[in-house]
UniProtKB/TrEMBL annotation:
Record bears the keyword Ligase: yes
Ranges for domain GS catalytic: 133-448
Membership in a protein family: Belongs to the glutamine synthetase family.
Highest taxon of source: Eukaryota
Protein name per Swiss-Prot or TrEMBL: DNA, SC012
Keywords: Ligase
Gene3D superfamilies on file: Glutamine synthetase/guanido kinase, catalytic domain
GO molecular function, one term: glutamine synthetase activity
Gene source species: Aspergillus oryzae (strain ATCC 42149 / RIB 40)
SUPFAM superfamilies, alphabetized: Glutamine synthetase/guanido kinase
């Protein structure tokens, strides 16, 4: 396992030498920006932000005053905004902006920058990023490059539907056009706002492959072109924010929540495309085997909430551990050599952590030269019922599997992160279990 040893040394805590110049360069071309939104995604998948006036941001960078301090939200706060009971008030976290990710927001006066998170305590005053999902993804990508000469391209399919507030104050579905690539769905009044949003995203340099109506009714999909892993996840979150901000300006709510309305059969996923670079059959089999072997554990990251498991069905997230060439019934669909679509993911996931888990599982398969024991379901001669291992039916099941295999995943991005993630998710299960089901779905519509 030496090839997969994790560098758990501290993240760079110095303000980058070129950060001030990067912000000044952006400001020269965007002199009307007033606010900088420093964003990070917590373990519950919630996007959080510290908003600073741009002049204060310049002041911090130029004078190297205090860092961007935030409360210990990353790994201590639930989807319901409640802290873990043992969350230390003496635990300080602060943001490490990646200035290469800066983009104009839908709000014309704001820009968005994605951040890593480092932490300190009195007993451990040296800042470190051991709990940071963004750091975990960077480490896995580095391991792939250094140990195997591999790089990755990652693309996402952004599924969403549009909601409005009813006379009773509840969210109801507003977009109603027929789906499944139906042209009629493009005549829905909501579609003009989708087009508006996509046009603006293209102007901002977002790589978009196409748009279509999705699902049975009232759903859209925007397919993003592939990018390297970190940039792909940053782009995904930027598109989410832009869609939500754009529709909010028109009085509506764009949501990617996995099942917004309990009586509506519609579900919403966040399918991910991964391809190895270079693409070759030598790495392909063991990489895929590593993912399949650990897919039940990966579900703890990719389907991270109790509502996520309502998508555990064929053609959605899948029911069993399997794969197949152009087999949409499977959680992993092979498209071409070393290119797969991972379908058992929804938009409530911390996508940095989910992608790190998927890529890390593939690297573990390579390190162990694990054989591909699962048949290709795209081959119609395959005997059914001879290969099936069920995917977890609940979040509790997937967390139990992750806990059993914590040592395995710990070699990829560290035991401390995994244990903290399990602890927070178990606490979250206890919180949402007592919530009114309607209020829980309304919360997910707002957050995701």
């Amino acid at each position: 396992m030496d090839q997969l040893s994790t560098d758990t040394s501290s993240m760079a805590t110095e303000i980058p030498m070129d950060a001030d110049e990067a912000l000044k360069g952006f400001y020269r071309d965007n002199f009307d920006i007033i606010f900088i939104r420093l964003q990070w995604q917590d373990y519950s998948g919630v996007m959080r932000a510290l908003v600073l006036p741009i002049e204060e941001t310049f002041s911090i960078l130029e004078e190297e005053k205090q860092p961007f301090h935030v409360p210990p939200l990353l790994s201590n706060c639930s989807v319901t905004n409640q802290y873990l009971p043992d969350a230390s008030a003496r635990h300080v976290q602060w943001l490490v902006p990646d200035w290469s990710s800066i983009r104009r927001a839908s709000d014309p006066k704001s820009a968005i920058v994605m951040c890593g998170v480092v932490g300190t305590t009195i007993s451990k005053p040296v800042p470190n990023g051991d709990l940071c999902p963004r750091r975990a993804l960077v480490d896995v990508v580095r391991q792939a490059r250094e140990s195997w000469g591999l790089r990755f391209l990652v693309g996402f399919e952004v599924e969403f539907q549009v909601m409005k507030v009813s006379s009773t104050g509840e969210y109801v579905k507003h977009s109603q056009g027929p789906g499944n690539f139906s042209v009629s769905g493009l005549r829905d009044p909501c579609y003009k706002y989708v087009q508006q949003c996509v046009q603006q995203l293209l102007d901002l340099g977002v790589h978009i492959h196409g748009i279509h109506s999705e699902g049975k009714r009232g759903q859209y999909e925007i397919a993003l072109k592939p990018l390297p892993p970190l940039q792909a996840v940053d782009q995904l979150h930027f598109v989410h924010d832009y869609l939500k901000d754009t529709f909010a300006q028109h009085g509506y709510m764009a949501t990617m929540a996995p099942k917004p309305i309990i009586s509506d059969p519609h579900t919403i996923g966040q399918h991910m495309h991964i391809s190895l670079q270079p693409a070759d059959s030598y790495h392909e089999a063991s990489f895929l085997a590593g993912i399949l072997k650990r897919l039940p554990m990966i579900c703890a990251f990719s389907l991270p909430h109790t509502l996520s498991y309502e998508r555990r069905l064929p053609f959605l997230a899948g029911e069993t551990v399997c794969w197949g060439t152009e087999a949409r019934i499977a959680p992993i669909r092979k498209i071409e050599t070393s290119h797969w679509e991972i379908r058992c993911i929804d938009a409530t996931a911390n996508m940095y952590l989910t992608l790190a888990a998927i890529l890390g599982a593939g690297l573990l398969g390579l390190a162990g030269q694990e054989p591909l024991l699962w048949p290709d379901l795209g081959d119609f001669t395959t005997e059914s019922k001879t290969w099936e291992e069920p995917l977890p039916r609940t979040l509790q099941e997937s967390l139990a599997r992750l806990a059993m295999e914590a040592d395995d995943f710990g070699t990829v991005f560290g035991q401390q992160l995994i244990q903290r993630y399990i602890e927070l998710k178990q606490y979250e299960i206890s919180l949402v279990g007592g919530m009114d089901p309607l209020k829980l779905r309304q919360l997910f519509i707002e957050l995701f």
